[in-house]
Amino acid sequence: MAINAIFFDVGNTLLFPDHTAVLKPLHERGQVPSRELLLEIERLTKREFDSLQQSGAVDHGFWHIYYSHLLERLDVPDDSVRDSLVSLTTMSANWRQIRAHTGETLLQLRERYRLGVISNSDGKIAEVLARCGIADCFDRITDSGVVGKEKPHPAIFDAALRSMGVSAAESLYTGDIYSVDYVGATNFGMRCVLFDVSGAYRDTGLPRVESLQELELILENN
What phi and psi, each to the nearest 5 degrees, are found at residue 86? Predict the structure, then answer.
């Protein structure tokens, strides 16, 4: 069946964290992690988190694992700093960095497809997307903080598809974490392409892109 609707994750897909805000506890200590280190830690965390999700033994959230690894590398053994970093990162308002041409590419995609959002967030992701100037690109925005279920739970995918009046078979989803986004979407019957800026899934053989422009090109060729 042809793809008629595309749904997007937000974090590390449409919007990226403002490191000035989320890493403030580290900056106050004189620690400024390089972009290369942050991407390395992201790749490491995604592999670990995916493995834990598959075994059903996840004891901590993604960002808890991420900042535990980062602080270990920076030799900052302080749980209070880690907890502050997790708190700042899970605030949707701090996800406000948007890549060049994001809005332009979404509008181009909207000429051919219906567009929606499915995001694990705090109930305020629509406001964040509006402040970043791209909320109007989407027919519907589905936020776990409103729905009450987070990806990969099927209820949030069901809510999103029902809100748009489309079927799973005609829908494609793109997000950045295999065990949350890819597994959740494909288990619900959607197609999925990982949005893999960090390169965590580069050697897995899974469908992946590193930009919206690359996604648009794949769609044009299919």
Answer: -60, -45
CATH code where residue 163 lies: 3.40.50.1000
pLDDT, mean of residues 207-219: 96
* Structural domain harbouring 124: 5-16+98-220
Q: Is-above-0.85 flag for pTM?
A: yes
Say whether both 67 and 150 belong to one domain. Answer: no
The type of residue at 168 is A
The residue among 93, 120, 142 that closes a domain is 93
**Domain end (from 41, 69, 93):** 93
Give CA–CA dist 69/192, Å, rounded: 28
Same domain, 178 and 108: yes
What is the separation, in whole angstroms, between the first and last Cα of the chain? 12
pLDDT digits (tens, 9 = 90+) for 47-73: 999 998 876 655 558 999 999 999 999
pLDDT at 109: 97
Q: What are phi and psi of 174, to 5 degrees?
A: -135, 130
What burial letters (b/e) apply to 1-22, b meaning 16+ CB within 10 Å? eebebbbbbbbbbbbebebebb
Q: Which residue has the tokens 């834990």?
A: 52
